[in-house]
Design goal:
This protein is α+β, with helices and mostly antiparallel strands. It has a domain of 194 residues. The strands form 4 sheets. The protein has a 4-stranded antiparallel β-sheet.
Length: 302
């Protein structure tokens, strides 16, 4: 009977009954697992206790009213009984659907959690964002031999948004039967994650700046290749070495290769550069040899 109810509820609520698509990860690392069957018993135990208490109160009040009351009271007692039974059936179906639609998908790069029937919630987190993996187990959970695997992600200090199996930046794999094995498997994946910020390989590649080639300029025409920059003297020496080889071309003669004649001093009594002022001639020598003018009196050598 529950299978018919489950299909009917899935058609009305538009929820999928199949496992979710696996998140990012290698093809052979996908593992789909669910909560333990004892988790369903763990969730139904408080429900059956509250149902037994509600039925006890209803029977105590309803039997007395049905025996001593009139036709109107009897109709109310029957209507109340139908309401209680209907409420218990709806509550049981809600808990059972929450268990049936709970899936955990684990790969070597991501974790995906989906749960809920009336409010379907699904969360995917990458191992690169995981900060800590721990196990939470209460006294009643120890009796049923189940536990919750708590996965904490980065930046979970003051977040308040509701997430599947937790709140904020915390996810919970509730009702896991072998919680220690699941925790160790996630921790093993954490040690193999590259430093991509939790965005995946495609996102990490997108963050890298694009390498653009600089447009050539007029100066690049006279610029030597990288690693071969040489001065003019080294270039001329290399050209001479190439010319000395058999079949080498003659080096191009430049102005710097011409022999320089030594600077001759002016002849005695000859004309001097400068001007005469008051019978004295002033000769301005080449900068670097002397500072200031040299005075020659009477136009003769000093």
């Amino acid at each position: 009977m529950f299978d018919v109810t489950r299909r009917l509820a899935a058609a009305i609520l538009k929820v999928p009954l199949t496992p979710p698509d696996p998140p990012a990860g290698s093809k052979g690392s996908t593992a789909v697992f669910r909560a333990s069957p004892r988790y369903l018993t763990y969730k139904l135990l408080p429900f059956w206790l509250s149902a037994a208490w509600s039925l006890a109160i209803y029977l105590a009040v309803g039997v007395a009213g049905f025996a001593e009351g009139g036709p109107v009271v009897r109709v109310l007692v029957v209507a109340g009984g139908l309401f209680v039974v209907g409420g218990l059936f709806v509550g049981y179906c809600a808990i059972r659907l929450d268990y049936e639609l709970r899936y955990y998908v684990l790969t070597d790069r991501s974790i995906r959690i989906r749960e809920g029937a009336w409010l379907l919630r699904e969360m995917t987190l990458t191992h690169a964002n995981v900060q800590d993996v721990s196990i939470s187990q209460g006294p009643l959970q120890r009796v049923f031999r189940i536990a919750d695997v708590v996965v904490k992600t980065a930046g979970g200090g003051g977040a308040t948004a509701a997430q599947p199996g937790g709140s904020g930046h915390q996810a919970m794999l509730a009702g896991v039967e072998d919680a220690a094995a699941v925790r160790d498997r996630i921790r093993a994946y954490l040690g193999r994650q590259p430093d991509d910020g939790g965005l995946g390989d495609d996102a990490a590649a997108a963050r890298q700046p694009a390498r653009t080639r600089r447009a050539p300029t007029r100066c690049d025409r006279h610029r030597p290749a990288r690693g071969r920059r040489r001065g003019p003297r080294a270039a001329r020496a290399a050209e001479r070495r190439r010319a000395a080889e058999p079949g080498g071309r003659q080096p191009q003669r430049t102005r710097d290769d011409e022999p320089r004649s030594p600077r001759r001093p002016p002849a005695a009594g000859g004309p001097l550069r400068g001007g005469a002022r008051g019978g004295a001639a002033f000769c301005f020598r080449t900068p670097g040899r002397s500072r200031g003018p040299t005075r020659r009196a009477g136009g003769t050598g000093a």
